[in-house]
Amino acid sequence: MKNRYTQDKAASAEILRLALQKMPGHPAAFVPPTYAVWYEFLTGINPSLSEAMNKLLNGNELLTTEAAQELFNRYISEGDPGAQDAFRQDMQKLLDNLVKFAESTGSETDRFSASLQKYGENLSNKLDDPMLKNLVSEIVQDTQTMRGSVESLQGKLHESKSEVEKLQQELQNARSEALIDPLTGVFNRRGFEAQMKKLTSDPELRDKRVSFLMLDIDFFKKVNDTYGHLFGDKVIRGIATVLTSQVKGQDSVARMGGEEFAVILPDTPTKGAYAIAEHIRQSIERSRIRRLDKQEDVKGITISIGIADCDICGDWADAMSKADEALYASKTQGRNRTTLYAGAAANAAA
Questions:
Q1: For a tag site, which of 191, 206, 209, 274 has the least CB within 10 Å?
Q2: In this structure, is residue 1 part of a structural domain?
Q3: pLDDT tens digits, residue range 241-290?
């Protein structure tokens, strides 16, 4: 099972301190599920939980023990990375039950067929009125029994269809989560690669070019050392929010690891990519990020950017490497700037 808590001792200690500031203001007991809810909320690693908590807190509601347990059950304990195994097991149970039910219905069908044959044989004989009336009654009763079996099977099949659709959705959600960075909600490296495969298979983009932005937060180690790892995580989430707000359509954002991001801009020339990159860079430079522990805004966070492009079906890994080289040029020439690959240094802009 993949570890969802990747914070080191210093970061987790900071989270503990913040949680102890928040928890006494609410009636929820100091039990593990309550702390888990506060932990995941304060770190921002669980977007769905954060949304539910923000809704509760913004409505001036207090977190009770019952509410904390409900949030824990809904957003934490059910977040099982083994969803595919669970899907297979549930599907097997469902199929086993259907086989048993089909066998039972099959037996009922065989019995009904034998009864009809017997009734046909009886009808070939001379029957008086009471005997004929009794025979018709038996036929009606057996027909109703068979009809009930068929209706039951139809109901079971309808329930099974709904259950299969539910399981398929759960599996799809699990697959999607495997491509998403839990801290930011954007693609992770695997998601980035999956998105590129999707783009290269799109016939409408076959003759187009794709531009890549490689971005890195300037002096991020200093940010962590000065303000703490929890604030550093908040900076990373803030950068991801700005990036996603600046892209559209088939454009994509991915966190490649640590403080490094990538943006995919299909059917976008480098000139257009440069304009987008500069808009992103300036937006981040103007932004302020709130420190929860000190209740103050921190400004002066900046990023460096490198840009390269290639044919959509070309060697995009090579283009990413070139964008990384351009990013390095931005770093060595003073940071907080955007650089285009190909004579990269000459194309850098402050």
A1: 206
A2: no
A3: 999 998 888 899 999 988 999 999 999 999 999 999 999 999 999 998 88
Residue 240 has pLDDT above 90, yes or no: yes
Residue 341's contacts (CB-CB under 8 Å, 6 or more residues apart) are: 306, 307, 308, 322, 323, 325, 326, 347
**Is 39's pLDDT higher than 60?**
yes
Is residue 30 one of the residues assigned to a domain? yes
- CATH code at 205? 3.30.70.270
The two structure tokens encoding residue 326: 């351009």
Mean pLDDT of the chain, nearest integer: 79
Annotated catalytic residues are 259
What pLDDT score does 346 carry? 39
Is residue 89 packed enough to be buried (19+ CB in 10 Å), middle (13-18) or exposed (0-12)?
exposed
Give the residue ranges of DSSP H helices in the chain.
9-22, 32-43, 47-58, 65-72, 83-123, 129-178, 189-200, 220-227, 229-246, 270-286, 316-332
